[in-house]
């Protein structure tokens, strides 16, 4: 038997992931050894410190361009940029998750194992503090996302996909209020997610059969050189795309999105809308740009149709929604379509503008869900749109913030939404994908209608008996809101630094 | 030589899994169908391992090990969620799961 030689690992380059996986494991240990009273603060501080440490390593390593761990992990410009984006957005989501000022015990149930509606459940809803397992679970999910955008072969990508999905399934089931809805959302997300990842894996196996390896470099070479029949390649790519588009919430793989976004605890919805989207598109970019760029001519029309369908379905169905979380879910589907337009530009501009869009959208959407956590009545969050009527009179400040956020979603100038849409549409035009841009602009106009309807409702209706109050946010939520709104404004007024950063980062290593 | 039988078996297993997910109402059976799909993939990986001229030998078998571990983790999480639902409603039929109009 020959000697086994271990692959060289550049520990500094993979340190952010190691730190976060380590922090999550320590967090699980803390659950076992710390007294209940001390857990929440310790866990929150530990998770935040871990994220900040990982972010500083990424900044320190910002010039690294290396393939490491036997070619399984690629640390390059897009990886570092997207990892940094995931961590910053993850910190914001963690601030929302950690806040307990609006509701006694926070947004999470104390013991998910207690049957809904039982005597014990009523007791825990009133008295108990929320579960602290959410912090390690969140850190596991974020660490998995970091690995997902760095994965340089399909198997690592599959492992990372599961590492970030499994904690998210559990987090969805942990809402304190409306626990039935939350658990059913988790079941739906889990079953469909497992189904989609089985397709992804089948695609991996087919591509392995075609290329004889699953590294993107190997795939790239055999796409151009192989004399084999390409049936395996196309079938494999299609199935891999199904898995990734499911996570990205693109039509026709979007059906889980509204139910899950509505049922999950709102801070977790924010985490999913921002970070999962960054991770899913990071993975999609690497698969299409690094692995399968040789067959770009064949997949562009198909993914283009998917993009158009996604934009149309998101925009049209957003109009009919009566629940603010479902409205934001359909808006997130439509935004997945705009992101696909950027991806399909298949150029350096396409890559950099997609990365810019991901960051801009992430900041705005977390701030939006932050405001949703504030508007509440005795039963928890008042998410039905009719309840939001007249909110502008009750609390002009938060209605103003939400109006600004909605205008950013609609892509009004001086907000990051405008610059981001401009960038992806510009990149697509340069690559000759004008038909995508036409659909993009048309659906943007369509999508502006539901946003403006909410704005009009908030400002021009009289507040009624049932108009809920806006809670004074705790310090953590306030911090997340401020970060989100300021980022949305700054990226809209002075986007040049981030645009330069995305342009300089837009180079994959192969 | 092309090992036709394992490939066809794997394709049948995968098809069976897809059919099961789409047709079964019981959440546990849906979960089992997903497992069937994953095992079909394992069969393909191990078969492909013997025919594909890979850069490294036996990579397909190693992939199968990864898939087995992840499938186990997935079942752990999945059964936890299904068990919750069973405690709640004393049924695991997925089309009895109303996602709208529940205010508890």
Automatic annotation (TrEMBL), chain A:
Pfam family for this entry, one: Proton_antipo_M
Spans traversing the lipid bilayer: 12-34, 41-60, 80-98, 134-151, 157-175, 187-211, 231-256, 268-289, 301-320, 327-348, 354-375, 396-414, 434-460, 472-494
Location, primary (coarse class): membrane
Keywords linked to the UniProt accession: Cell membrane, Membrane, NAD, Quinone, Translocase, Transmembrane, Transmembrane helix, Transport
EC number: 7.1.1.-
Broadest EC class assigned to this enzyme: translocase
Cellular compartments annotated: Cell membrane; Endomembrane system; Membrane
Membrane topology: Multi-pass membrane protein
Reaction equations catalysed: a quinone + NADH + 5 H(+)(in) = a quinol + NAD(+) + 4 H(+)(out)
Ranges for domain NADH:quinone oxidoreductase/Mrp antiporter transmembrane: 151-446
Family classification: Belongs to the complex I subunit 2 family.
Subunit structure: NDH-1 is composed of 14 different subunits. Subunits NuoA, H, J, K, L, M, N constitute the membrane sector of the complex.
Its job: NDH-1 shuttles electrons from NADH, via FMN and iron-sulfur (Fe-S) centers, to quinones in the respiratory chain. The immediate electron acceptor for the enzyme in this species is believed to be a menaquinone. Couples the redox reaction to proton translocation (for every two electrons transferred, four hydrogen ions are translocated across the cytoplasmic membrane), and thus conserves the redox energy in a proton gradient.
Protein name, as recorded: NADH-quinone oxidoreductase subunit N
Gene for this chain: nuoN_1
UniProtKB/TrEMBL annotation, chain B:
Keywords, alphabetical: Cell membrane, Membrane, NAD, Quinone, Translocase, Transmembrane, Transmembrane helix, Transport
Annotated TM spans: 6-22, 29-48, 60-83
A Pfam family that the UniProt record links to this protein: Oxidored_q2
Enzyme class label: translocase
Subcellular location: Cell membrane; Membrane
Catalytic activity: a quinone + NADH + 5 H(+)(in) = a quinol + NAD(+) + 4 H(+)(out)
EC number: 7.1.1.-
Gene3D superfamilies on file: 1.10.287.3510
Broad class of the protein's primary localization: membrane
UniProt key word Oxidoreductase: no
UniProt keyword annotation of Transferase present: no
Membrane topology: Multi-pass membrane protein
Family named by the database record: Belongs to the complex I subunit 4L family.
Quaternary structure and partners: NDH-1 is composed of 14 different subunits. Subunits NuoA, H, J, K, L, M, N constitute the membrane sector of the complex.
HAMAP family found in the cross-reference section: NDH1_NuoK
Function: NDH-1 shuttles electrons from NADH, via FMN and iron-sulfur (Fe-S) centers, to quinones in the respiratory chain. The immediate electron acceptor for the enzyme in this species is believed to be a menaquinone. Couples the redox reaction to proton translocation (for every two electrons transferred, four hydrogen ions are translocated across the cytoplasmic membrane), and thus conserves the redox energy in a proton gradient.
PANTHER family registered for this protein in UniProt: NADH-UBIQUINONE OXIDOREDUCTASE CHAIN 4L, NADH-UBIQUINONE OXIDOREDUCTASE SUBUNIT ND4L
Protein name: NADH-quinone oxidoreductase subunit K
Organism: Phytohabitans aurantiacus
Gene that this sequence comes from: nuoK1
């Amino acid at each position: 038997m020959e000697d086994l030689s271990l692959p060289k690992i550049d520990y500094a380059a993979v340190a952010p992931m190691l730190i976060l996986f380590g922090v999550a494991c320590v967090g699980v240990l803390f659950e076992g050894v710390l007294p209940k009273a001390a857990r929440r603060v310790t866990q929150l501080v530990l998770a935040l410190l871990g994220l900040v440490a990982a972010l500083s390593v990424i900044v320190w390593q910002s010039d690294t361009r290396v393939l490491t761990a036997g070619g399984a992990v690629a640390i390059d410009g897009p990886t570092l940029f997207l990892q940094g984006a995931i961590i910053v957005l993850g910190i914001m989501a963690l601030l929302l998750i950690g806040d307990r000022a609006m509701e006694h015990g926070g947004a999470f149930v104390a013991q998910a194992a207690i049957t809904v509606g039982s005597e014990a459940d009523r007791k825990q809803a009133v008295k108990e503090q929320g579960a602290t397992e959410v912090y390690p679970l969140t850190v596991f999910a974020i660490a998995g996302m970091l690995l997902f955008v760095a994965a340089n072969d399909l198997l690592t990508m599959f492992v990372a996909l599961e590492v970030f999905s499994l904690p998210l399934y559990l987090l969805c089931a942990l809402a304190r209020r409306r626990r039935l809805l939350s658990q059913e959302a988790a079941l739906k997300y889990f079953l469909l997610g497992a189904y989609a990842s089985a397709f992804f894996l089948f695609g991996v196996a087919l591509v392995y059969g075609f290329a004889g390896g699953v590294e993107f470099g190997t795939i790239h070479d055999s796409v151009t050189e192989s004399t084999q029949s390409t049936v395996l390649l196309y079938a494999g790519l299609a199935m891999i795309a199904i898995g990734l588009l499911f996570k990205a919430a693109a039509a026709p793989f979007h059906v889980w999105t509204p139910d899950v976004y509505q049922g999950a605890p709102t801070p977790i919805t924010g985490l999913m809308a921002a970070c999962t989207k960054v991770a899913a598109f990071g993975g999609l970019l690497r698969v299409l740009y690094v692995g399968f760029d040789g067959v770009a001519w064949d997949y562009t029309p198909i993914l283009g149709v998917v993009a158009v369908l996604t934009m149309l379905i998101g925009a049209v169905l957003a109009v009919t929604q009566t629940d603010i979380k479902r409205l934001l879910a359909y808006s997130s589907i439509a935004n997945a379509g705009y992101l696909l337009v950027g991806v399909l530009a298949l150029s350096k501009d396409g890559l950099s503008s997609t990365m810019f869009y991901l960051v801009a959208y992430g900041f705005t959407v977390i701030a939006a869900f932050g405001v949703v956590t504030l508007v509440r009545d005795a039963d928890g969050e008042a998410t039905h749109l009719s309840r939001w009527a007249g909110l502008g009179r009750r609390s002009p400040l938060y209605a103003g913030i939400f109006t600004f956020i909605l205008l950013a979603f609609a892509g009004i100038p001086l907000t990051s939404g405008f610059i981001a849409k401009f960038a992806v549409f510009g990149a697509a035009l340069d690559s000759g994908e004008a038909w995508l841009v036409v659909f993009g602009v048309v659906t943007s106009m369509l999508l502006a209608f539901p946003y403006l309807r909410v704005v009009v409702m908030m400002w021009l209706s009289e507040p009624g008996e049932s108009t809920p109050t806006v809670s004074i946010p705790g310090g953590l939520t306030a911090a997340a809101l401020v970060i989100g709104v300021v980022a949305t404004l700054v990226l809209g007024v002075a986007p040049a630094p981030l645009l330069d950063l995305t342009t300089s980062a837009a180079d994959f290593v192969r | 030589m092309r090992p036709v039988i394992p490939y066809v078996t794997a394709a049948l297993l995968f098809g069976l899994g897809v059919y099961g997910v789409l047709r079964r109402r019981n959440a546990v059976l849906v979960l089992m169908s997903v497992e069937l799909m994953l095992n079909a993939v394992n069969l393909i990986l191990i078969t492909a391992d013997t025919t594909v001229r890979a850069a490294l030998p036996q990579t397909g078998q190693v992939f199968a090990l990864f898939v087995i571990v992840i499938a186990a983790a997935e079942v752990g999480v999945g059964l936890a969620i299904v068990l919750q639902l069973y405690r709640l409603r004393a049924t695991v039929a997925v089309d009895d799961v109303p996602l709208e109009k529940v205010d508890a």
